[in-house]
Amino acid sequence: MLSSYAILIFLWLSEALCSTFDYIVVGGGTSGLALAVRLAQSHSVAVVEAGTYYEISYPLAKTPGADVLPVGSDPDATSGADWGPSREALDKWAEAVDDPSYAFDNVLPYYQRSAAFTPPNLARRLANATTLYNSSAFDPAGGPLQVSFTDFVQPFSTWVARGMEGIGLPQSSEYNNGELEGYHYCMSTIRPQDQSRSSSQAAFLPGLLPSNLRLYKNALAKRILFDEDKNAVGVEIDKVGISTTLRATREVVVSAGVFQSPQLLMVSGIGPREHLEQHNIPVISELPGVGQGMQDHPFFGPSYRVAVETLTRLANNPEYLVQEYLRWLKQHEGVLSSPIADFLAWEKIPDDLRTGFSEGTRHNLSLFGDGWPEVEYLSGAGYVGNVSDFYYDQPDDGYEYASILAVLTAPTSQGTVTLASDDTWDLPIIDPNWLETESDQQLAVAAFKRVRQAFASDDMNPVVIGEEYDPGPQVQTDKEILDWIRNNVMTLWHPSRTCRMGTPDDRMAVLDSRARVYGVNRLRVVDASSFPFLPPGHPQATCYMLAEKIADDILLTQQELTRTDL
Ligand SMILES: Cc1cc2nc3c(=O)[nH]c(=O)nc-3n(C[C@H](O)[C@H](O)[C@H](O)COP(=O)(O)OP(=O)(O)OC[C@H]3O[C@@H](n4cnc5c(N)ncnc54)[C@H](O)[C@@H]3O)c2cc1C
Ligand SMILES: *[C@@H]1O[C@H](CO)[C@@H](O)[C@H](O)[C@H]1NC(C)=O
Ligand SMILES: *[C@@H]1O[C@H](CO)[C@@H](O)[C@H](O)[C@H]1NC(C)=O
Ligand SMILES: *[C@@H]1O[C@H](CO)[C@@H](O)[C@H](O)[C@H]1NC(C)=O
Ligand SMILES: *[C@@H]1O[C@H](CO)[C@@H](O)[C@H](O)[C@H]1NC(C)=O
């Protein structure tokens, strides 16, 4: 009798003790896992993740090809990357947050820390897809994230390279040196040995968890808890309907992504006062910038019939998909090892297409500075349309389809994330607000025309079959083009800046340059929402950079505290 009581008490005690950690990280995504694993090298850390090991429940997710297959704009739809920081963007970041540690040369070591680079495998890549690269942009000691070039090059990309030449873009020698201008086959987070996606899960949690790290999966963070002095002391979580409180003796780090980080702050009392009061949430820190100022990279693209194999074949032929999946699994090759968009280019719109820009547009674009490209082009080996669903929307008429996606990388429209209720089970309300400003509209029309010029160039012409398929040559005036873009625009999945960093005198700033939330203590936000603005390159590498940088900051601060304790 006594012994079973003892066991019960022991179990209760160990559970109670185990739910106190040095650090709690909310969100096991790109930034959260990298940060948590670094902190766990010397501290006890809990990761609270609303999802689970999705790469086990959804095996296709391990293939680089899956980066676009299941993710369209269809709201009912469920369920790779490169790094291209620009020197100018990071120097601007340092200026915006008044902290020189963000200048390009100072953050470069943090970009390098997560990444292990493998040069392209020339024996396996297409002979007509040679690419320039510079290994010394990487640190040989970097890792565990794998960065390489996909073995399978989309044949269509070799034609886009010619199209870019045709409209006057230069091949860039490589873009990890902080210059984006020009075209390039891109590096991807692909593990070269088996051509699988090197995600934060695959790279940072490859086997047994570090003993200091406890992962609460299928656990939704409901609220951050504060003591009377506004110190973040814990997180209330909901795991399969059971509410539990986790305690943090040092800090709580929110890495719940661009939509849910501001949501969690707001339901916990941090945000625009009026909005919180509408939902009867007591205000702990009034910060009008929470959920505001969202920036993204909207894209769109006309589609053509082409004379090379593209995603269209894969989408219309389930047997081929299965065959390619097995080929990828066994031989680590084939279409599914391709992230589809394996080729990128950046530029400023050339003078002849700027003549129609208004004064306001010219002014807005001038604010971005010389080294900041206005548009990006991605090779898109498939029909694009309204991007409702890349896979199911491919036409099934025996032709192969392809596009060049035009992306706005100097956008001025800003979106918002607001609460639908005070409960994190309810998704927040997202208003992306793309193409709201005149400068975005005029830039979009010019970018669309550039894509048409590339397809019409002599260099690209041999691969094109017939005239433009979608929207087709009847769409000609700026107004017609803009109308079509409005109905077919999609995000390149780069939303950011909903809990942005800034100086203390900046009313809309949510975080200081060390990612600490203004007005409270021991609380940081580290993910794409923390960016002071969205750089023109793709954000994944910057999420890792920030996680590495803030992990270092936390650990160094801890060491200093320990030293002063002694
Ligand atoms: C389809 C797609 C393709 C992309 N392609 C590229 C690319 O090629 N190159 C590139 O650079 N970038 C790309 N991106 C963008 C890049 O993936 C993101 O910028 C990056 O992953 C954002 O990381 P994060 O840490 O901010 O958030 P996330 O990685 O989204 O992590 C947030 C985590 O928090 C969890 N969470 C949310 N709320 C709660 C809660 N209340 N409690 C507990 N957990 C919670 C979520 O489940 C999630 O795991 C792509 C994105 C998408 C969607
Ligand atoms: C490669 O990168 C290194 C470090 O950034 C630089 O010093 C070197 O000049 C580069 N080499 C070439 C050929 O661009
Ligand atoms: C490059 O080679 C591939 C494979 O032979 C071919 O499909 C593609 O059309 C070629 N590209 C160009 C621009 O010639
Ligand atoms: C998007 O396109 C698909 C077909 O390609 C169509 O079924 C769907 O209705 C379109 N959605 C919108 C919102 O226009
Ligand atoms: C310029 O950008 C600002 C936001 O930064 C926006 O409010 C304004 O409408 C833009 N002007 C034009 C002409 O697009």
UniProtKB/TrEMBL annotation:
InterPro entries: FAD/NAD-bd_sf, GMC_OxRdtase, GMC_OxRdtase_N, GMC_OxRtase_C. GO terms for biological process: secondary metabolite biosynthetic process. GO terms for molecular function: flavin adenine dinucleotide binding; oxidoreductase activity, acting on CH-OH group of donors. FAD binds at residues 30-31, 493-494, 539-540. Its cofactor is FAD. Keywords: FAD, Flavoprotein, Glycoprotein, Signal. This is Glucose-methanol-choline oxidoreductase N-terminal domain-containing protein. It comes from Aspergillus mulundensis.
